[in-house]
Design brief:
This protein has 288 residues and is an alpha+beta fold. The chain contains 12 helices and 11 strands. The strands form 2 sheets. A 7-stranded antiparallel sheet has the order 1-2-3-10-5-8-11. β1 (2-7) and β2 form a beta hairpin. The radius of gyration is 24 Å and the shape is elongated.
């Protein structure tokens, strides 16, 4: 870790350059740099081809971000979350800005970012509560500046909270699919939760709710992060696990109770999801 406070003709900046442990690099989301910046003169900075993801929030002032060939105007309360493999540049305007930011990475972060984009996340979006992001960055800075034995785990915890908040708050579902489609998907999800014992198909649900099946499949995936069929399977297997643990019903009866009356097929589906058979699951978990 290297921390520095410096001023030049363009900015006043506080920064920690962080080197995580080998364990953190292999297993966790980990911090690379974190800091704050106050422009004292208009300036531009840019990078490309970094194995890093950048998050920053504008606390005061205005500026611009150029990313993937698009120019974004930024003002107080705006957040930026980008993949630094792609070229980007950021510029303070005459209305000098103040930023807080962090660069971070991890072996699974590319998948997280792809899911963020798939769910409608934008490179730039207005924070619903800017203070929440600022607080997380302050807590990350404190963790990085400590000498605690567990600081990599604490940093991981804060970065996980940050990515979860980004995934939740920047999902512009109403813009992508419309408020009415969101209501339809929630109604269908509730219907599946209540009727998982019945025969459920995409076509049947589309007909029941008077929605085109292709439109339903797309909206459900965008809003729930999974397909209709996968969600039905998830609900059924979750119910089956509960019955295997807390009932004396036979495995065949449990399969039927969960909407999969063919015992052999139930066993195959269960093993595909859990990696073990229903009987093995019951033996491992029953009574715990």
């Amino acid at each position: 870790m290297d921390s520095a406070l410096f001023t030049n003709s363009l900015v006043q900046s506080s920064r920690i350059i962080y080197t995580p442990s080998a364990f953190a690099r292999a297993n966790l989301l980990y911090l690379q740099e974190i800091g704050s910046l106050k422009a004292i003169s208009p300036h531009t900075s840019g990078r490309s081809n970094l194995s890093s993801y950048l998050f920053f929030i504008v606390l005061e002032g205005t500026g611009e971000l150029t990313y993937n060939g698009t120019l974004y105007q930024l003002s107080a309360g705006d957040c930026v979350f980008i993949n630094c493999k792609n070229a980007y540049s950021q510029s303070s305007s005459e209305d000098l800005w103040t930023l807080k930011w962090c660069h971070f990475y991890g072996s699974n972060l590319a998948g997280i970012y792809n899911k963020y984009v798939e769910r409608g996340g934008y490179p730039v979006f207005p924070a619903q509560n800017p203070r929440t992001y600022e607080r997380l960055l302050d807590e990350l800075y404190t963790c990085a500046d400590s000498d605690a034995y567990t600081r990599d785990m604490r940093i991981y915890d804060k970065l996980s909270s940050l990515t979860a908040l980004l995934m939740e708050e920047s999902w512009h579902q109403d813009v992508k699919t419309g408020a009415s489609s969101r209501r339809n998907v929630l109604e269908i999800k509730d219907y599946i939760d209540a009727n998982y014992r019945e025969k459920l198909t995409l076509e049947g649900l589309a007909g029941l709710f008077f929605i085109n099946k292709h439109y339903l499949a797309r909206c459900f995936k965008e809003q729930c992060g999974t397909s209709v069929a996968a969600y039905i399977q998830q609900v059924r297997i979750t119910r089956a696990k509960s019955l295997l643990r807390f009932s004396e019903d036979t495995i065949e009866k449990i399969g039927e109770e969960c909407g999969i009356p063919d015992a052999n097929y139930f066993a195959r589906v269960f093993k595909k999801v859990e990696g073990i058979t229903p009987g093995e699951y019951r033996k491992l978990w029953k009574g715990r």
